[in-house]
Amino acid sequence: MSVCSVSLAFFSGWCFQLCPFVVAFQGNSTVKKVILNRPHMLNALTYEMLSQMIHKLKVYENDSKVRLVILKGTGRAFCTGGDVVALYNFMTAGHWSFGASFFKKFLNLEYLVATYKKPLVALTDGMVMGGGAGVSMLARFKIITENTVLAMPEAAIGSYVGETYLLSRLPGYLGEYLGLTGAQLDGAEIIACGLATHFVRSKDLQQLENALSEMATSETIEISQLISKFVGKPNLKQSSAINRLEIVNKCFSGETVEDILLALEKQIENGREEKWIVDAINSMKSSTPTGLKLFLRSVREGRRYNQEGCMLLEYAVICHVIRRTVSNDFYKGVNAKLLGKGKKPEWQPSKLELVEEEMVERCFGRVDEAEWEPLQLPPRSNLVQDNNMASKL
Ligand SMILES: *[C@@H]1O[C@H](CO)[C@@H](O)[C@H](O)[C@H]1NC(C)=O
Ligand SMILES: *[C@@H]1O[C@H](CO)[C@@H](O)[C@H](O)[C@H]1NC(C)=O
Predict the structure, then answer these.
(1) Which of 55, 60, 62 is the best mutation target for the ligand 1 pocket, counting ligand atoms within 8 Å of the beta carbon and taking the most?
(2) Which of 55, 277, 330, 385 counts the most CB atoms within 10 A of its CB?
(3) C-beta of 26 in contact with ligand 2 (< 6 A)
(4) Where would one find the signal peptide in this protein (predicted)?
(5) Which residue range is the domain that position 172 belongs to?
(6) Domain with 131 in it: what CATH number?
């Protein structure tokens, strides 16, 4: 881990001077580029990076000369979400509320991306994980390539799977499948399930970026037409789970995580020994039982809320997770899986049956601490308030 990420929350001013280019801001007066530039950390986002991005995106939004903003990453990842190791270090050395501030910032960035008033084009030519999916796939134009791989691996490391809004809007019960199993989608699959808007070959991406820079317009139709000229043909693998949506839906529509696991096992018993089913079962069995249940409830509830409502819900749940309201799995998982101390985390509760409904319920309510407040997102004219969720917290 770099010096940068360890010290951020404490010495953000100092870090800013040491590593000023973790996000690069380029472009000219009409087309701006926001470039995640922390390739050795797969562009995992720190608090400082989030702050810089939010600040600049607001400045661009407000600057009448700016027509278009391009969002991209350096290296083989677009973004692997938040820098969880740095977060773990702050919270174990200090207080869980550092984590709460971090997630508040993260959700604010995603919200800004989702409601951005100017065309935002995310060029995603690599790995996208966890919160990185929100930062890219909530943009107006989401361009992916054959190098794009998307996954939500949080449950495997003991954490809570977010991106409730995106996942709950996928076809059928695909969102449940992705969040519960951490399964990866490749570029062709991302397009097929409607997460991204355009598939462009990686070799053509630079040309597209140049063309967008030269066009410098805010007109959605013109931008769409331009991007269309670069669109390539994705090649959906025969073995893809997307080609088996019927079975995905049959298994992942189960009412509880236990039901879903049973349904998958039944497929195997009935002779359907497909790799994706075996992988799904193995992944669910080694992930945090508490995290799986929290995610399932979120994605189901999320279908009833808008973007803002989903974010309010996620913020409450993640605060309970990092505060250890019902389980310490986040800390155990990061320690074992990301810091390599101990091979297999011993989740507690250790089994799905031991995670009681009441425990899950508690994580969807207020955090019982005097200073805690529900997430407050700034009013943005292009999104309606969701009082439905807010009234519950
Ligand atoms: C946006 O522009 C207006 C008018 O130029 C200014 O008053 C306001 O402070 C700006 N806001 C931001 C976030 O830059
Ligand atoms: C911005 O850069 C693009 C591409 O290099 C160029 O076509 C355009 O004229 C530039 N705009 C300004 C205002 O400099």
Answers:
(1) 62
(2) 330
(3) no
(4) 1-24
(5) 3-390
(6) 3.90.226.10
Nearest to 136 by CA among 22, 34, 21, 9: 34
Which ligand has the nearest atom to the CA of 26?
Answer: 2
β-pairing, 120-124 vs 149-151, is: unpaired
User: Looking at residue 20, what is its pLDDT?
Assistant: 58
The alpha carbon of 215 and the centre of ligand 2 are apart by a number of angstroms equal to: 8
For residue 376, pLDDT over 70 is answered with yes
Please report the atom of ligand 1 found closest to the CA of residue 59.
Answer: 14
Query: What ligand is nearest to the CA atom of residue 59?
Result: 1
- Per the document, the length of the chain is 393
What are the backbone angles phi and psi of residue 136, rounded to the nearest 5°?
-95, -50
Q: Ligand 1 center to residue 58 CA distance, Å?
A: 9
Degrees (nearest 5) of the Cα angle 108, 110, 116? 95
Residues 278, 240, 190, 204, CA torsion sign: positive
With a 6 Å cutoff on the Cβ, whether 65 touches ligand 2 is no
What per-residue confidence (pLDDT) applies to 379? 85
**Location of structure tokens 């008033």:** 117
Of the candidates 211, 196, 103, 81, the one whose C-alpha atom is nearest the C-alpha of residue 147 is 196
Cα 62 to middle of ligand 1, angstroms: 6
Side by side, the strands of the sheet bearing 198-199 are 23-27, 31-36, 68-73, 120-124, 141-144, 198-199
Measured by CA distance, the residue closest to atom 9 of ligand 2 is: 214
**In the chain, how many domains are there?**
1
Q: Are 209 and 170 in contact (CB under 8 A)?
A: no
- Cα torsion 82, 349, 365, 369: sign: negative
- Output the pLDDT for position 124: 98
Q: Taking CA 372 as the corner, what is the angle to CA 163 and CA 95, rounded to the nearest 5 degrees?
A: 85
Q: Report which of residues 215 and 208 the model is more confident about.
A: 208
Asked if residues 25 and 37 have their Cβ atoms less than 8 Å apart, the reply is no
Give yes or no for residue 37 CB within 6 A of ligand 2.
no
